[in-house]
Write a structure and sequence with these properties.
Elements: H1 22-82, H2 88-108, H3 112-122, H4 126-149, H5 162-186, H6 193-224, H7 232-250, H8 254-263, H9 269-272, H10 277-308, H11 319-346, H12 350-359, H13 370-375
Length: 383
């Protein structure tokens, strides 16, 4: 086991058959969870640039090609719709096909040509429809904000996207909290003896936790300061270690500082078992905060990509899953391109298309509810 091995940061029973204290068990568990989350966060940070590059260089050009063929297909059907050889029943079927394709393409492709076809065959104005939907969504969001958070959102506030709504809601909640604090400060409530004792204990614990980190930092600085090292090669090694020490101390990364102590041979794994529980509790407080920060950062990344993939909020995504989804989507788009090219070739002749259209049946409409009418589709895209 090397000093860099995270498993080295672990308290083992002092002798065979003995058990660890509650503080020691919590220390080991926190170290394990932090190490796991650090690896996951590093995996995300390695994966995101790869994902973004693949999206920009591979997926988007493929999807643009697919959209181009879909527009070509719509324009061909539009030509047939105007030809006299296609009768009323034929035209109804053509209109249905164009409408169905337009529903997706008008969202996926910025094109006035697509909008014009949408307006023609959907008997409505796309821009006006979008504006109406955005207004309805804004009213619903404002209602939810008032009901759930007791926050009033002004009519002139732009809440057209989840990001804008979230930013404004956070501002409002912060203002609300500041106003409540101001009222409390203006009318201070006398605290009970228990409250004062609890606050004093909390402040003491925080101070001692901070001192624990400072103590480790001072020991590392004393041992690793490169200016005191005559050997040039060793001075370079200590300079690199000191940079890592300063970075870890700046982040209050207790796990990294402990690992650096092992690497600098200031302590060994056996000595960890001799740390008193009182001191260990201060370590656990810092480690708990560190774990919470890592969990929050990972959660933010996961939520970002879950929203992008239209996954339900209770779903789960990993870096591996993200790249697998992208690979699946690219295979699907390639397959769709092959199908639509074949359709364009097969239906290039009006007579051939008319014969195919004769067998085509307009599907029965799905039952739609108020949610569908507002948002234009199913609530979730379960992949």
């Amino acid at each position: 086991m090397t000093a860099k091995d995270p498993k080295a940061i672990r308290i083992a029973p002092k002798k065979q058959g003995s058990t660890l204290s509650a503080a020691q068990k919590r220390f080991n568990n926190l170290i394990k969870q932090i190490d796991k989350n650090k690896k996951l966060l590093l995996d995300w940070k390695d994966t995101i640039p790869v994902y973004q590059q693949k999206v920009g260089q591979e997926y988007e050009p493929l999807f643009d090609t697919f959209n181009g063929y879909r527009l070509e297909w719509l324009q061909l059907l539009d030509q047939y719709y105007e030809q006299p050889q296609f009768k009323k029943t034929d035209k109804a079927k053509i209109k249905h096909i164009i409408s169905a394709v337009c529903d997706d393409l008008v969202v996926d492709m910025e094109s006035e040509a697509v909008k014009a076809l949408f307006n023609k065959y959907k008997d409505t104005d796309y821009d006006a429809m979008v504006q109406e939907q955005e207004q309805a969504m804004a009213e619903m969001i404002k209602g939810l904000a008032k009901e759930m958070f007791k926050v009033d959102i002004d009519d002139d506030v732009d809440v057209s996207t989840p990001e804008k709504f979230q930013a404004h809601l956070q501002d409002k909640l912060r203002e609300q909290a500041e106003a409540e604090e101001a009222v409390k400060a203006a009318k201070p409530k006398k605290k009970t003896v228990k409250q004062l004792a609890r606050e004093a204990k909390q402040q003491e614990d925080e101070a001692l936790a901070g001192k624990s980190v400072q103590e480790i930092y001072r020991k590392l600085v004393a041992a690793l300061h490169p200016d005191r090292e005559p050997d040039e090669q060793e001075r370079a090694r200590k300079t690199e270690l000191m940079q890592r020490v300063n970075t870890a101390y700046g982040k209050k990364d207790l796990l990294q500082l402990l690992e650096l102590q092992l690497e600098a041979e200031q302590v060994d794994a056996a000595q960890l078992g001799h740390i008193a529980d009182d001191r260990l509790k201060h370590f656990n407080k810092i480690l708990g905060e560190q774990l919470a920060e890592l969990t929050e950062e990972i959660g933010h990344i996961e939520m970002t990509f879950m929203e992008r993939l239209n996954m339900p909020f209770f779903g789960k995504i990993t870096p591996k899953h993200l790249l697998a989804e992208l690979a699946h989507d690219m295979r699907q788009v390639k397959q769709d391109i092959a199908y639509i090219k074949e359709d364009l070739q097969d239906h290039a002749d009006p007579a051939t298309f008319k014969a195919w259209l004769k067998a085509y049946r307009i599907p029965k409409p799905k039952r739609r509810d108020a949610f569908d009418e507002l948002f234009g589709g199913d609530p979730f895209d379960f992949r």
